[in-house]
Amino acid sequence: MAYAGGQLAGYAELRDGDAPFIYLAERNNIDLGFQLLMILEEIARERKVAELSTQVSAKNPTLLELFLLNGYHSILSFLIMELILEEAPALPEWTEPICVRTFSPGQDEQATFQADEEAAQDKGYHQPLDFDAWTKRMGMTLDRFDPGLWFLACDGDEVAGVALNVHQLESETAWVDHLSVRRAWRKRGIGKALLLHSFGEFYRRGIRRIKLSVDSKSLTNAPHLYESVGMKTVQHYHIYKKDLQV
Fold this sequence. Notes:
three-stranded antiparallel sheet, 11 strands
């Protein structure tokens, strides 16, 4: 922590061991930001951390400049998009033979994993996961896991796409955690139908606020899909990385 005149001027921490976080009471105080960042990097080197990675809001130009000037690079940026349901959403339109059903625990784990991982190959930042890592990432062992909010778009016995959603109870917000459509079933409106089906279930449960995070440069132009169902960007942030071994 740093103080000026007895007041907190800023502080820094390494979150999860390799994610530098810096708070500046005066957001344009780049000199203090530099001092705090150098301290974090020294701590990281002492811990043998190979790479630092952090996210910075596009609304904070001082920190954007700070990281760029100190050897960090950004190859990804994400949008947080939001929709407030003021009325019942439009009904989804399914093209035959596609139909939708709810995830069935003990039956659908492998098929859902395979469909989600296959579709994720078109995400430039995706790192392949094995089944155990995927179930952990998706929170399937946590109390918050609700299979009634996971929806599968099926073509016969094949899972064509999935909408894997989470209800964040403390903020009364539904998150569309993963929306995935396999390559062979794209351009049929399945992604939009899965979204609208999810919205309908959120509305039925009395959940009015919906959010998601999406790559701003998505190869499948996902932000356009979300805009088409009324979602709006409420936050934009960049991912910065630095190799400490260089």
